[in-house]
Amino acid sequence: MSPFRATLAIAAKDIRVELASRTAIATAVTFAVLVLVIFNFARDPAEVSLAVLAPSVLWVTSAFAGIVTLNRSFAMERERGAMEGLLLAPVSRSAIYFGKYIANMAFVLVVNAVLLPLFILFFNVSLTGALGWIALLLLLATAGYVAVGTMLAAMTVRTRFSELMLPVLLLSFVVPPVLVGVQATTRLLGGRPLSEIIGWVRFLAVYDIVFLVLGWLLFPATMDE
Amino acid sequence: MVITVIALAVLASVYGMAIFATPTERSQGLAQKILYIHPSAAWASLMSFGIVGITSLGYLLLKDRRLDTFSEASAEVGLAFGVAMLTTGPMWGRPVWGAWWQWEPRLTLTLLLVLLFVGYRALRTAIDDPEERARFSAVVGIMALVLVPFVHLSVYMFRTIHPQPVFLKPSAPSMPWEMTRTLLFSMAAYTLLYVGFVTMRYGIGKRREAQSA
Question: How many domains are there within chain A?
Answer without folding.
Answer: 1
